[in-house]
Amino acid sequence: MLSMAIPRSWQGEAYNQSQGSENQIHSDEVAREYGFKGGLVPGVTVSAYLIHPGVEAWGLDWLTRGRARVVVAKPLYDGRPFRVVVSDATERAYRAVLIDEGGVECATAEVELPDRLPPPPQFRGDPRIGEGYERPPGTREVMEGLRRQGMRALRARWDGKAGIVSYLRDASGMPEPLRPEAGGYANPANALGLTNWALAGNVKISPWLHLQTDSQNYAPIAPGSELVAEAAVADLFERKGHEFVDLEVAVYFEATRQPAMSARLRAIYQMRRG
Predict the structure, then answer these.
(1) How many helical (H) and strand (E) elements, i.e. helices and strands, does the chain have?
(2) pTM attached to this predicted model
(3) Domain coordinates in residue numbering, the chain
(4) Are 272 and 256 in contact (CB under 8 A)?
(5) How far is CA 53 from CA 96, 146, 254, in A?
(6) What is the CA 74 to chain-centroid distance, rounded?
(7) pLDDT per position as a tens digit, 31-84
(8) Cα dihedral value 107, 56, 188, 256, nearest 10
(9) CATH 2.40.260.10 matches 10-115+125-270
């Protein structure tokens, strides 16, 4: 049964929890070299801000079958206030826009709680990224090779200690099912982060930008879950000097091979300077 709650607008303070990441677009120095004011808040964190109203309203229902399309268009910076304005909200869907302190629309989302799940992705059993795996550089030639030959699968674990533990500085501000003391299920930033880590685990790239995800949940990711993320290059293209990749990712529980989430990531894996 669908929850009767209707998602609502909210506001918060941006949190760049990835300043020490291998992806140096989150560092002030490198981000400024590419024309930004400072290190960028991760795209998956921005996505979580837009999905937050859905988790707040629908709780485990959304983690079980929620669907979201999030597009990040403009940068959001650490410590800056933002507001998420929800519109067209019903008991099963809403639209949202994230607006920074200067009135800039940084990202948009369409979030839905469907009645039925779509057909699930099928576990392939791809070779895994092993210890000591030497990643090739993320060039167009290498990416074309991965499109033809396939990618290695990423192993991950959700235990509240690795990845993006919270998309807020104070985790108690997240919706109840995500709080460590009340379920501690994987938050949307961490779940969507698996698409980033699947890409960066296969090729060495920095700096790069997460731009968009179309995601579908199939099950909540509880503490202690061992996960496998299988990925495939769906498309490669160049636009205005940037090199883009569309990546299809499916996340499974290692023990059962049942899906937790599927997503299509769009990212710039090679950025034009200036």
Answers:
(1) 5, 10
(2) 0.94
(3) 10-115+125-270
(4) no
(5) 9, 37, 29
(6) 16
(7) 788 777 888 899 999 999 999 999 999 999 999 999 999 999 999 999 999 999
(8) -150
(9) no
